[in-house]
Amino acid sequence: MEFINTFKLKKAITIKYLIALSLIAILSSVAFLVLQKVLKESENTAYLVNISGKQRMLSQHLALDMFKLYNLMYKNKNDGNQEIDTIRNLLTKNSKNMLESNEILSTGKSSDKIIYTLSTKFQDIYFGTTNLAQRVINYNKIVQIALDTKNEQDFLDALTSISNQSESILTDLNLAVLQYQVEGEAKIKQIKEIETFIWILTFFILLLEVLFIFRPMTKSIVELTISKNNILNSLQEEVNVRTLHLKKANKKLENLAYHDPLTGLRNRLTLENDLEQLLENYKKNNIHFSALVFDIDFFKNINDNYGHDMGDFILKEISLLFTKSFRQNDKIYRTGGEEFVILLNKISFENSLKIAQNTINLVANHDFINNETMIKTTVSCGLFHSSICEIDNFKNIIKFADIALYKAKNSGRNNVQIYQEEQNS
After folding, report:
1. Going along 297-403, which residue ranges are E strands?
2. Contact 398, 341 (CB under 8 A)
3. Residue 410: what pLDDT?
C-alpha cells in the first residue's frame, strides 16, 4: 500500500510538473509569436523612419543642386560642362528617389507589399490639410521643369519656386519623421507592456510549481539562498569598491594620456584621430574646416630672461585665453613646447581668418602678470582651410599649417599667414 501511495505521489508530481512545463511552453510560444509580430511592426517603423529621413534630406539636396546647376549653366557659362552633366544626373536620380519614397510613405506599400496602414495623423499629413504627398510631387515637377528648360528665366522661376517651398516642405517632412518616431516609440512601449505581462504570468506559474511540487524543499532552499546571498552581497560590496577604485584610476590614466598635464588641453595623441575624422566628415558631407597652428614668439627668451616658472605661466595663461575665446565645439591642443593647434569645424575661410587675427590681437593686448612681474608677448599663426586645396592624407593638414606658420615667423611674427597651394610646389 505504501508503495502504491508513493507511486501515486510520484505520478501526481510528474503530472503537475508536466502541466507546469506545458503551460510555460505554451506561454513562451504565445509570447514569441506576439513579440515577433510587434517586432516586425517595429522593423517596418524603423524602415519608414529611414525612408522619411532620406526624403527630408533629398528635398534639401535638390534645392542645393538646383542652385549649383543654375550657377554653372548661366553664371559660369564657359566651364563646368562635365560638372553640369554630373549635377543634372544627380538631380534626376535624387528626384526619382524622393518620388519613390513619397509613394511608399503615402501608400504604405513597398514593392506591392503592404508594410503599414496609414494612421489618422498620417492621413492628415499626406492627404489632409498639409497635403504633403501632392506637394512632394509638385516639388519634383518643378525640378523636372528646370531640367527640361533651355531658358534662363524659366530656370530662374523654377529655382525661385523651389527656394520658396524648400523651407515649408522641410518642416512638414520633419513633422512626418517625428510622427514615425512617435508611433515607433508607442510600439516599443507595447513590447514592454507585453514583456511585463509575460514576466508576471511566468512568475505566477513558477510559484505554483514551488507550492505544489517543491514545497518540501522550500525551507532548505531558503536557508541555502540566504547563506548564498550573504556571501554574494559581501563579495559584491568588495567588487563594487574595487571597481570604483579601478574606474577612478582608469579615468585618471586616461586624462593623463590624452591631455597636457600643464595646461589641461588635449595633446598630440588625440590630434591625429580628430584630424582623420575631420577630413572624413569633409569628404563625406562637404563641411569645411580650418587648422590653426599658433606658436609663441621668442618663447625661449622668456624662459631665459624670466625663468621657466614665467614660461609655464605664459603657457597656462594663453591656454585660458584660447579656451575662453574659441567656440565651444572647437578643439584646442598643446602639441609640444610653445606650439598650439586649434581645429575649427563648420567654418568658412573668411571666419577662420578673422578668428585667427582676433586671437593674435587678444594675446598681443593681454598683460601677463605673474608675481608682480608684467610682460607682453605675441603669437604667430599658420592657417590652413579645406577650401584652399584638396588633400587625401590628414597628416598634410598640420604640415600645410606649419608651412604657413613658418612664413608668419619669417614675416616679422605677430601675424597670421595662410597656406597657399603653390607654397608646397
Report:
1. 331-336, 339-345, 368-370, 373-375, 379-385
2. yes
3. 95
DSSP state letter for 44: H
Angle formed at CA 131 by CA 127 and CA 132, multiple of 5 degrees: 110
CA dist 57 → 65, 151, 305 (Å): 12, 28, 59
**For the CA atoms of 376, 379, 380, 385, what is the dihedral angle to 10 degrees?**
-150
Residue 157 CA to residue 180 CA, distance in Å, equals 34
318-346 pLDDT, tens digit each: 999 999 889 889 999 999 889 999 999 99
Least confident among 178-182, 303-307, 316-320: 178-182
Distance separating alpha carbons of residues 388 and 135, to the nearest angstrom: 40
Distance CA 313, CA 301 (A): 14
Q: What's the maximum distance between 2 C-alpha atoms anywhere in the chain?
A: 114
CA–CA separation, 220 vs 331, rounded Å? 62
| DSSP reduced 3-state for 331 | strand
Q: How many whole angstroms separate alpha carbon 33 and alpha carbon 26?
A: 11
Q: Which residues pair with 259 in a beta bridge?
A: 266
Neighbours of 358 (CB within 10 A): 13
- Return d(Cα 126, Cα 143) in angstroms, integer: 20
CA 347, CA 361: separation in Å to the nearest integer?
A: 20
Q: Which amino acid is at 276?
A: E
- Yes or no: say if 95 and 143 are a contact pair by the CB < 8 Å rule: yes
Q: What is the pTM of this model?
A: 0.44
Compute the 3-state secondary structure of the chain and give helix, strand, coil in percent, each to the nearest 5.
75, 10, 15
Percent of the chain with pLDDT over 70: 83
Q: Which pLDDT belongs to residue 56?
A: 86
Tell which residue, 299, 304, 306, has the closest CA to residue 370. 306
319/311 Cα distance (integer angstroms): 12
Calpha distance 355→339 (Å, rounded): 17
* 3-class DSSP assignment, residue 302: helix
Please name the helix (run of DSSP H) or strand (run of DSSP E) that holds residue 311, with its range, or none.
helix 308-325
CA distance 224 to 230: 10
What DSSP string describes 179-238? HHHHHHHHHHHHHHHHHHHHHHHHHHHHHHHHHHTSGGGHHHHHHHHHHHHHHHHHHHHH
Q: Left, alpha or beta for 149 (phi > 0: left; psi -120 to 50: alpha)?
A: beta
